[in-house]
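Worked example 3 (structure in, sequence out).
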């Protein structure tokens, strides 16, 4: 810790198992899915479903998947890139700041990170959840937990939160730059695949309770009706990237991956979209995954392995992935600007 630091920055990522073993994956999945903002059903039902069905069935398979993306040198890709982002941002901000990294689930824990910051008697702390689009299950959960843990503090510095940055210009520049590493003319279609959410969670975020999400147009919802609608923010991210790369409207599709259970989730599903594109004769796809700022199991396995294999089995030829933001200096500049623009 820098003795000169007067301002704190807390970067918070979702989380990762400590190792690719069934036991560690079980611990991670249990903590993650027992969060009432993630699995927003009554406690007893959540406990029976998570601890009695989902985790016992998924832990071993998920551990095997984590093992395929785990690096002997760097360990978890999500942790590896998150640490890089922390170090690079610390270097950019200088000794007047202290940048702490935490995971919402597992290690390094939010409680440990906040204890470190508390001991420094900082003038201010800015919390940046590493999720570009706001959702109650991600950013909302981080903010909720930070406020809960800080209730025990005996002093309170100025605390601020960055709730979303779905169309941040520098972030969009990085995504476009990474996309242009591929020959864009070589692809039949572009997918923008975001992490899914249950539809009921979209409805809950509407503060006016004027209707269900499909009643609102995503082009106007974020600005006119509900600034915190995850779906509208996903479309805002997509529009910004599409404009930057001049992708025609008929050459891209927004879709949603990683659904769980039988309740309705945001559609169209990525898997269904792949089926439709293969059926229409598309052969080569380039996939963007702008809900993630670092490559992780959802990008390295779910898209690049699971969906790529599925598309080939359906008659397609190739699925490529646009690299996440990872350690791109321009992304670190975007984070730095968020700190400075929020008065820290």
């Amino acid at each position: 810790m820098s003795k000169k630091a007067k301002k704190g920055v807390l970067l918070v990522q979702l989380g990762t198992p400590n190792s690719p073993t069934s036991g560690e994956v079980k611990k991670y999945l249990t903590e993650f899915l027992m969060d009432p903002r993630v699995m927003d059903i009554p406690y007893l039902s959540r406990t029976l479903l998570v601890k009695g069905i989902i985790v016992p069935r998924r832990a071993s398979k998920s551990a095997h998947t984590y093992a395929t993306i785990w690096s002997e040198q760097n360990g978890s890709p999500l942790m590896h890139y998150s640490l890089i982002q922390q170090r690079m941002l610390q270097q950019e901000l200088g000794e007047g700041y202290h940048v702490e990294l935490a995971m919402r689930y597992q290690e390094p824990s939010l409680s440990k990170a906040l204890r470190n910051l508390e001991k420094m008697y900082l003038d201010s702390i800015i919390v940046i959840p590493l999720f570009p689009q706001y959702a109650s299950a991600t950013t909302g959960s981080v903010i909720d937990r930070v406020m809960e843990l800080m209730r025990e503090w005996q002093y309170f510095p100025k605390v601020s939160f960055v709730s979303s940055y779905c169309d941040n210009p520098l972030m969009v520049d990085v995504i476009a730059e990474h996309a242009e590493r591929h020959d864009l003319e070589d692809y039949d279609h572009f997918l923008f695949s975001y992490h899914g959410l249950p539809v009921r969670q979209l409805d809950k975020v509407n503060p006016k309770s004027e209707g269900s999400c499909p009643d609102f147009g995503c082009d106007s919802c974020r600005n006119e009706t509900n600034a915190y609608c995850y779906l509208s923010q996903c479309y805002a991210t997509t529009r910004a990237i599409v404009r930057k790369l001049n992708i025609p409207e008929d050459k891209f599709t927004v879709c949603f991956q990683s659904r769980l259970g039988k309740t309705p989730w945001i559609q169209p599903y990525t898997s269904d979209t792949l089926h439709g594109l293969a059926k229409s004769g598309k052969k080569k796809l380039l996939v963007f995954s702008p809900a993630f700022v670092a490559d992780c199991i959802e990008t390295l396995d779910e898209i690049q392995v699971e969906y790529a294999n599925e598309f080939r089995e359906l008659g397609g030829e190739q699925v490529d992935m646009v690299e996440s933001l990872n350690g791109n200096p321009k992304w670190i500049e975007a984070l730095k600007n968020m700190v400075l623009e929020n008065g820290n």
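Notes: The domain at 169-321 is CATH 3.40.50.1400 (Rossmann fold). The longest helix spans residues 43-69.
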